[in-house]
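Comment thread on ticket #2218

A.B. wrote:
> Attaching the input chain for the structure job we discussed in standup.
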Amino acid sequence: MHMRSGTVSLRSSEWGRLGQWLRSLGERFSGRRPGRFGSANPDAPKWRTAAAILLTFAFVPMASGEPGPPGRDLAEQLRADTAAGVVSRDEAAIYAFLALFAPDQLPASYKNLPVDVPHCSAGVVRAAKDAVKGVDPELSEAFAAALPQPCSENFAHSIRSSVYPLIVHYDDATLASVAADTLRLTEEQWDLQVLTMGQTAPLLDGGACGPDENIDIFLLPIDRGTGWYDVVAPNPATFYDDWSTYTMINSNFAVWPEWFTLEGTVAHEFQHMLQCADDCWENGNLYETTTILIEKVMDENWDHYDRAFPVFAKHPYRPLEFDDNWGPFVYGKAQYAFFLRDRYFDGDASFIADFWRNTRSPARGCWDCLPELNEPDIYDAIDTILGAIGPYDHVDSIIEFSRWRWYVGRQDDGNHFEEGGLWPNTTIPPYERFVRT
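C.D. wrote:
> Ran it. Output below, let me know if you need it in another format.
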């Protein structure tokens, strides 16, 4: 078999040899023995396996380099300034937060840069909360002043579910119909994601947020974004990192990007709450791989592939864990979840229930601290769910994913991604022609 003209031409036997070589390369990077991570170098970061494979399987150097300074948005500028030592990683996290919640508090050099508003602000909020201890008092105070604290507020109105332990809070009486819609949509997502797909239900908060132990959803206006979730408290009854959570929905609908919907936002944030019921401190930006997939499950007509998939495709050398400050790349990596669904699970997204359950690891209460305790991690979880259906592991999946991602847009052949023909041509990774002699 040959790949399509214009990419790389390799016969089946050559694919096999290349796959074996890539696997050995990944094992050299990670200290991994064939078949499992292990004793050769137990302290080696597992992400290097995936990084080496994705880097090599990009096939080609980028035809165009990273965006230059004139086209930089805030996220790109913060990455560049962090690399150059202009700001610390913690300061960059706080500035990313202020861009959404208090843009007037940004330094002058950042105020006029365009902001790519994330689909969900949760990662920005939680990263800033982790980072605040590492910044100066003035920046810490700006963060504290801008951070919404809905759990301790008294709201004029609320509406309760008669089916599930859910309560929606709001102050503006004109939001009554929106509150009712939010509650109904959340109940529908409970039916879908918990009862039908089998995910772990969100945890009650024991009264730590809102008037009682029920799961709280708040309608509050903010400057940018559509919504987010946040943590409330750890579950003392388990050994792993499951936490109760609440959700915020931005009631300032005038600032919502036109393609965002209340239905999609509720589905997205509810998925985050379920992730936290299994492992709330797994690699944070990887949570978005299944939230975007859930939006597709929720609405078969969902077709916003052009929003993030092209950015992911543009950088095929980046590992899945790469974080662009919660920009489009983080959401574009959902393409890998679409691949897992279509390649290994016959188009059924319910695999994510077992996936997240298999990430449960000892309680840490933070994303970056005590990484040695984050076992099992997402790659272990992929090994587990794939190993249950065949002789596969995460390395196999990433190698094959690197092939599948070429068959999208105009190169779709009907044998790969279910919706690959609907994806824009910009989701085809960039390449240069190589001639094998």
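A.B. wrote:
> Thanks. Noting for the ticket: The longest strand covers residues 227-234.
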